[in-house]
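Pipeline run #58 for the internal structure catalog. This entry was flagged by the ingest filter as a single-chain record with no existing model, so it goes straight to prediction. Upstream metadata was stripped on purpose; only the residue string is passed forward. Reviewer on rotation: M.T. Logging verbosity set to normal.
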Amino acid sequence: MSMSIRSPLSDYKQAFNELKPQILADGKIDKKEVEKLKDLTKFLPPEQKTIELKNIDNLVQSVNNKTHSSEPNRLSFDLKSNSNESGNKNDISIKGSIQKNILSILNENTKDVKNESKTEDKTKTNNVNLKKGDDWGGGKVLAVNVDPTGYRNVSKGIEGGVYDTTFDEKSYTRFKSQESKGKAPAGKAEAYKQKHLLQNLQDCLSGKSNHVSLAFDKQLYENGTLKKGQKFRIPELEKAYGKSPIVFVAQDTGSDFTGKGFSRMDICTRDEKDPKTGKLYESDPRLNESKLTLVKMP
């Protein structure tokens, strides 16, 4: 079973938008909320973390500068003591028209993020111009704008796994025992294990495996909407990786998106770092930043 992890940058942007009104609550910069936002940057890649921390510091500094320099005869501020009602230390209460300045600064600091989001939307939203029910590549489009996440197939840890959800350790042990006693053909246990091994994208791209394992909402399997072993193609990924066809197979479930239907899925990746980027393969932006089209194959 996999535990999917959304793109850290996407989650950070969402958190930023959610925290904006809290940061500006009652016309003040709340240091506690700012610290929450800074804490979220720890999930970002190092380079992005540095950029976002700088943006946050610039935001606070800009507000402070405007507080002290913009129209002092019209604005007032006070440094609250430790005994203030909110319990937050050193909250700077901003009154009057400075609220407009804060909003302006927030907009300036998030301008690039908003522009990036618009750009992502253009590339993420069904960028192969297909809709549900369309024919493509010998199959039929089952879902569009599916939100993907890369996940590692590891033997231990908080996410991923070596085998799919139908692998039964007792059956494997029984087959091994039968082989040793001559009651089962040699290789039966190994064949069973290989059948249930999760296959990662990198092995498929290099020709070591013939498909890539996908994890979906477990309810899709339970209600009969999806069958284990169902094959798919994903046009955007074939284009991104320059390989066609790439066969994807429904083999696993993702506990983090139970009840999400086909809006979410996990794509199995090798449990290693890409030598070109130095980052885990599961972090490949092509697997985390693009809305994908799911084509069901016969």
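catalog note: The longest strand covers residues 139-152.
catalog note: Strands lie at 28-29, 77-79, 92-94, 135-136, 139-152, 212-216, 231-233, 248-253, 264-269, 292-296.
status: ready for reviewer M.T.
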